[in-house]
Amino acid sequence: VYIEDTYGNGKYVLTKSFKVTTDADFEAWMTAQGFPESYKPALLTLHKAHPDWQFTAQKTGMTLDYAVKTEYDAKANYATSAENAYASQSTIWYYMNPINFLNETDIFQFMDHNFYSSTASEETVKRLVNQNNCFLNTPSYISCLYNGGKNARNPNGGNARGVNPNVLTSMIIQEQGWTGGADLISGEYTQTIQGNGKVLSLKGYYNFFNIGAYYDTLWPGTAYETKVNATRRGLWYAAGSLTPDGVVTETGFSRPWNSIDKALLGGAFWYKSNYVDNKQNTFYTKKFNVMNGTSNVAEHQYESYVAGAYAEGRILRQAYTSDYQDLVFRIPVYTDL
To answer: The whole model's pTM is what?
Structure first.
């Protein structure tokens, strides 16, 4: 068996093997985990096809009814990625109900985002980007994504593991598209921000994860108050949250992101610190924050697109061949299912 410590260092050791071999044993194991009866038929089918996949029940401590209504009332979900209409309550229900996604493809929205050398490598990243004319399909991008994920460890606490680079790659593809080309990652954005008697250039900065990219007003209540769109706001964040005088005020996560490498590495560390270490370590829980108590539902969610986790999981699935082993899935369980 291959054993790793929390820093990703590992070795093979001899141990007594254990595997659930019969349907009855697996059903008993699911019951002990806390999976409801409604989950069991689909999980049993997956177990038969992939006996080395691990399924963990994430007990939310709330009803699905409560979570859906809270999301709906908060207007926290858009029906499309273009953010032009709020999702209906029935649509939110569909995408929040884990039972709808317990199949070989859609279950990847529940895959653990921590770094494990047995399930993440430059080869898995290469497999993912080697299709659909993906703009990330270069040796430099592949190496940087792998090392960025592996080394995205929080020295100030939290899980000392990094982030699965296939997860990071899927997030970028979801945010920037397979072929890329968006202003946030071109490094050639020409629009500027008018500051204190000077023009602040946003050229030469990169933001692959769309961090801080939303419509906003910079420096409100001052003579330099400026309304900006998502691209300008995202590049302003990447530049280090510039003051009207052009001074960098934020250097966390390797900012300013004035190179592709710094933007990828810093973005990976940002995601690790703000989501993976905050009990939001699957695509599902980064979209629907249901593991931090009822008061945090519809808060601190990475994206507003209601089908975001579903879409990212389908991208992530392409990093793995059908016979891949040792994958860990953390599946939410609600009290009314």
So the answer is: 0.91
